[in-house]
């Protein structure tokens, strides 16, 4: 498909000394799976000459390298085969005495190839992005057999695009949705309620379910230092404040709660300008203070987004908590707080920050928050929060980590 489309030196790109945005095209599988993506890479390199374009695929597709080079696309091979030889499977006879041993041997070989394949993929992408902290304009394009690229895009914080000239070649297991909902109920709700132009549950069931398979989780955790579960890592700091897209509505909810109850709020802000502006327009008075974790000791409840830092500070302070997760690992921590018994069931986003600031939305959110605060003030939750804090205060996490490190790393005579 690509071989007949070359036009010699006409594909040459231009030079330049300024930083060039980088585009990685990653495709694995047989010729029919790989060649269409190679054609896309060549066409992109011709059309967008300011980009540095790379194509990562099996070394078995070496025949593509000349045409790609003519089109100023860097060819980066990995040693894994497009498919393991079918005859190896066919040679394992069901009535053979050694069939189980041979099958185990074949499975082990597949695992070895998979480990090496993913290691080479990581190395190749690291070679492209290197230590350049700027990723503006960078992205990775993958086909359905190159899901490594999705996880690597998350690691390097670049966009990932799926390119497939065919229908999704697999479907989710029948039990996937049930197991996902049971294991990750809040993340499931998030995908169900995702706004337009965001990843939603339809995308998950269409093809993204494969990203949540256990084999990817171990690689993410062990090799990429990411959370085993996609969408639960805090790595893209630009998203952290995204949930406060309507800070005025958030403040109006708090104001409505104050007017209906005797509750009072202390609001900590880290200098987020839209929130600060909303405070000036809504609040009658503003008291600025530097944030101190110990301040939570003077409050009955800590209401937060379930970020790991806020969660830990409130746990150490021994106060009841109300969590309202918005993205990534916040869902895990919110679930964990409820499971520990130090917080009621987590709030949904619209129960704290409505999409609109009309009277009905504000009233509904305020009423929900009032009910949740009452639950958090229960004697059971308050007592459990104190028990957890006491348990944490007796632990020496740094000391224990240092002990293990010395035990495992230093020679016995030095430890």
UniProtKB/TrEMBL annotation:
Originating species: Oryza punctata
Source superkingdom: Eukaryota
InterPro entries: Glycosyltransferase_28
Protein name as catalogued: Glycosyltransferase family 28 N-terminal domain-containing protein
